[in-house]
Amino acid sequence: MNKWDAQQAVRTNLAFSAFLLGAAILAAHLFFLQFDARASSYYQTKLQERWHSYECPQGKRGNILFSDGSILAGNRKVARVIVEPHLINDTKAVVERLAKYVDEPVEALLEKVEAHEGYGLVLADSVPLETALAIDREGLRGVFTRYHYVRFYPHGDYGAPATVGYAGREPVHRLGLEYTFDEHLSGRDGMVVYRKDADRKRLPGSELSTIERQDGTDLTTHLHSGIQQVCEAELRRATRLNKAQWGCVLVMRPQDGAVLGAATYPAFDPNEYAAGNVGDEFNVLVHRVVEPGSTVKPLLAAYAIERGWLELDQRFICNRALWLDGYEIREAELNHWLGDSRGVTVKDIIVNSSNIGMGRVALALGQERVLASYRAMGFFSQTGIELPAEAEGFEPYYYADSKKALKWPRITLANTGFGQGLAVTPIQLASAYCVIANGGYRIQPGLVEKTPADLAEAVHEGQTLPTGETLVADLFEPISAKEPSVLPLLQQAQSESQQRVLSAATCETITAWLVEVVESGTGKAAKLARCTAAGKTGTAQIPSSRGGYSNGAYTASFVGFFPAFEPHYVILVMFYRPRGEYYGGAVAAPVFKAVGDRITYITELGLSQVNHED
Questions:
Q1: Is 118 a domain residue?
Q2: What is the Cα–Cα distance from 581 to 131, expressed in whole angstroms?
Q3: Lower Cβ count inside 10 Å, N or C end of the chain?
Q4: How far apart, in whole angstroms, are the C-alpha atoms of residue 443 and residue 435?
Q5: Which are the contacts of 568, defined by CB distance < 8 A and separation ≥ 6?
Q6: CATH number, position 246
Q7: CA angle in degrees (0–180, nearest 5) for 259-218-388
């Protein structure tokens, strides 16, 4: 064998050896891949990523409904348009066809697509359903639509937005019932794993596994759609005139505390908040505290009479001014005073809204009895309404850092008689008037209707007894009807479960006084056209941050109920810092009349919807 043949044989042997070594390495690698669990799992995952995909069907959020079943808060199906640039052959042509559906110029869309690196460019979000379906019909390669639900509020800022609340994209963005019942309303997403083709399209019938979605549970409120629209419309009309910083109109059913209407100002459109534009919103019904002024006079008198601390014929002298330790108490109007040296009765003090008279009543009762009276009516503690961050209000002469009860100065005690020096929320004040209207029972205000199971549990635990569905329906019969009333049935139910604060006799006495307030006293502007109303005006000074009270700053209010001696509705109207006129009888009482007359119209005609004027 010559030298060349020997070299060729060496090369051949080396090549063959290298081949055998490579084959051995490949065989070892294949063996490793086949029997090593971690490697097998890794490559299997890679394979699934290439040919498998998944979708998460969205669990719809439960609806929030009016009492008649119409929607306060619901869901709207929209789509997200997603582009996969690496799957598109002619980017410009695809973008030009998409531009007519997406509200952006072709140049801007083209720049966005060409600059994107990676997968899944969201080209547009919250696209209307009709538009998304039209994009699907285009059949564009590399363009996908993914459908989902967004929160929708069909009544916008007329649908009790601060009470219903809003649910945005972020779970932290909640308010009102949307916050309180978030767990109840929230749905749970499902999952569908399927095979896809090279264009990342779903292959028909290729589902590998499915987890069904779960929708949230609907929530039915006591809010009456017609009454809510009336409250919103009349509140807007009034605030345009008086230019108050904030205001509210609240309608409650006194027998069980059901909230039938809850309008607040300033209002907002919850659809904007559901889209992520969240601001610093509040619900004045539970988040704002004010000095109630003269609206508390009947409440203090009622409890004192009930306990025998005051006699009906007891008389108090109402001078032009009352001086206490260097402080002067005057009537709201300097030319307004009552009686003579013989004094006047508590009835005259209430009907004529005498500050000096109620100041003397409070001095006669003393601190402990005054405080007990207001506490019995539900002041200084949360009502328990289903709204977050409810304020408690505060007692007279209250200091947060104090560890013990403080003795009130005489001027503080006298001021409490006409609602000065203490603070309550609008919902507390309206709930207190429900006590007089329903015959003496303290109620817990409520927004959400209870199921029969909830009703049975409430009776078992001795809680506030909600009204059953049949009785609720009966309350919306014409209020002037001659048929037997359901109120005795409600009152019998209340006596079994609710705390009685006043006797029926005391409530009738106070109601008669409040009727006089409307018929001939400070609340004449609240007189209804078709039935008798009872109520009380309030004009309270607003405390200054520097001490004392701000000049020209008042809270104007009116709280009442009708029909007077068989009431179906309690209505509270309140305006904070109105401009121009500021007396409750001039600012709030006319709104009570407007709302009350329109509610009468609604119930007598059996309407659930009414037209409103913006």
A1: yes
A2: 52
A3: N
A4: 7
A5: 253, 254, 475, 479, 562, 603
A6: 3.40.710.10
A7: 50
**pTM to 2 decimal places:** 0.80
Phi, psi of 225 (to 5 degrees): -60, -40
Its domain, for residue 80, covers 55-195+202-220
| Pairing of β 549-562 and β 219-220 | unpaired
Cα–Cα distance measured from residue 83 to residue 88, given in angstroms and rounded to the nearest whole number: 9
Q: Can you list the alpha helix ranges (DSSP code H) found in 328-397?
A: 346-351, 355-365, 367-376
Q: Which of 17-21, 74-78, 444-448, 583-587 has the lowest mean pLDDT?
A: 17-21
Angle (nearest 5°) at CA 169 between 167 and 171: 65
Say if residue 266 is preceded by a cis peptide, omega within 30 of 0.
yes
Q: Assess whether 247 and 210 both reside in one domain.
A: no
Residues 563 and 595 in one domain: yes
Better-scored residue on pLDDT, 214 or 455: 214
Mean pLDDT, the chain, whole residue set: 81
- Chain centroid to CA 497: 27
| Cα→Cα distances 40→98, 208, 569, Å | 42, 20, 72
Cβ proximity of 81 and 102 under 8 Å: yes
Give the model confidence (pLDDT) of 171-209 as tens digits: 555 679 999 998 889 877 666 665 655 555 565 656 655
Cα distance between residue 263 and residue 386, in whole Å: 16
- The enclosing domain of 163 has a CATH number of 3.90.1310.10
- Angle subtended by helix axes 3-35 and 37-51, to nearest 10: 80
- Backbone conformation region of residue 424, classed left if phi is above 0, alpha if psi is from -120 to 50, else beta: beta
- pLDDT per residue over 33-78, tens digit each? 666 656 566 656 655 555 556 566 667 889 999 999 999 999 988 8
Token pair of 128, please?
A: 């209307």
CA distance 537 to 587: 10
The DSSP bridge pattern shows strands 219-220 and 64-65 to be parallel
Q: Alpha-carbon dihedral of residues 613, 599, 245, 391, nearest 10 degrees?
A: -140
Query: What H or E segment, with its residue span, contains residue 30?
Result: helix 3-35
Give CA torsion, residues 485, 489, 494, 500, to 10 deg: 60
- Together in a domain, 236 and 261: yes
Using a CB cutoff of 8 Å and minimum separation of 24, what contacts does 395-399 make? 395/371, 395/422, 396/371, 396/421, 396/422, 397/421
At residue 323, φ and ψ (nearest 5 deg) are -100, 130
Do 216 and 236 belong to one domain?
Answer: no
On whether the CB atoms of residues 312 and 345 are closer than 8 A, the answer is: yes
Beta bridge partners of 442: 499
